[in-house]
Write a structure and sequence with these properties.
Elements (H helix, E strand, L loop, with lengths): L12 H9 L14 H28 L10 H20 L7 H17 L12 H33 L6 H42 L7 H62 L1
Helix pairs in contact: 2-4, 3-4, 3-7, 4-7, 5-6, 5-7, 6-7
């Protein structure tokens, strides 16, 4: 039971019960914080997440088996997907977008396949559990802060939180810190809420038609494929925007410094030419 909606047990529920009786999965209860249902949900999330990762790896391996100059079949799908992800990062991050493609592409594919796997009977979306989405949010938070420090330096990174007005720096620092800490929470809750709600609707529709053997949940399953893509796209897009908020400032300062050096060199060259003409 979750939120008043009865979900069919997963394919791994029997395995969980067997291992739990032997005490192998006591660590999933986190010292008594989680009950049996929560521990089972966490167990399902880990198994299904591992299956999603394995599916991505398998697709890539199969697509790379026979590379051709004129792609077709699975190779064509993979190249089309890669170009789409590259285009998204370039649109959101500018020319430096491809540099962040490995990170953002991995995040997109991981979330997309985790969303999709819940549409398979007997499996559950890991992204309908807070543990998975919070882990994703925290991971993106750490990555973005690391990118920001590398792009701006420690001094520039801290200056970003203080703002441009020195008198308001203490207040702005607190506000910016709170805003940064809210970002992983926002990412996590948005993804969790949408996938959790979708899976609950599918469970309700499945229950309505189960007794009469009417698959009334099939239209929602079809819509779930679109939702799986949409939620992965939104999460990845917001992650790119968070990165852009730090790197754009660094790029602007770099461009100003470059223009200043260029102008200084131009003035120096002009002075040299003027002095040479005067001597002549």
């Amino acid at each position: 039971m979750a939120g008043g909606v009865e979900h069919p047990p997963s394919l791994f529920h029997g395995l969980f019960v067997s291992l739990d009786k032997k005490g192998v999965l006591d660590w999933l209860r986190f010292g008594g914080w989680f009950d049996e249902h929560q521990a089972a949900t966490f167990f399902d999330a880990m198994i299904c997440s591992a299956m999603a990762i394995a599916a991505v790896v398998l697709l890539v391996v199969m697509g790379r088996k026979r590379l051709e100059k004129v792609p077709k079949g699975l190779q064509n799908v993979l190249e089309w997907s890669l170009e789409g992800l590259r285009g998204m990062t370039v649109d959101l991050l500018g020319p430096q977008g491809p540099k962040y493609l490995p990170l953002m592409g991995t995040v997109f594919l991981y979330i997309f396949f985790n969303n999709l796997i819940g549409l398979v009977p007997g499996l559950k979306s890991p992204t309908m559990t807070p543990s998975t989405t919070f882990a994703l949010g925290i991971s993106i938070f750490i990555c973005v802060q690391s990118i920001a420090v590398k792009a701006n330096g420690v001094k520039g990174y801290l200056a970003h939180f203080c703002g441009d007005i020195v008198a308001l720096a203490p207040l702005m620092f607190v506000i910016h810190i709170a805003g940064e800490l809210a970002k992983p929470m926002s990412l996590s809750l948005r993804l969790f809420g949408n996938i959790y709600g979708e899976d609950n609707i599918i469970a309700v529709l499945f229950g309505m038609g189960y007794g009469a053997w009417i698959p009334v949940h099939l239209p929602m399953l079809a819509f779930g494929i679109f939702t799986a893509f949409l939620q992965a796209f939104i999460f990845t897009s917001l992650s790119c925007i968070y990165v852009q908020g730090f790197t754009e400032h660094a790029g602007h300062e770099h461009a100003e410094g470059h223009d200043h050096d260029h102008a200084h060199g131009h003035d120096h060259g002009h002075g040299h030419e003027h002095g040479h003409a005067h001597s002549h």
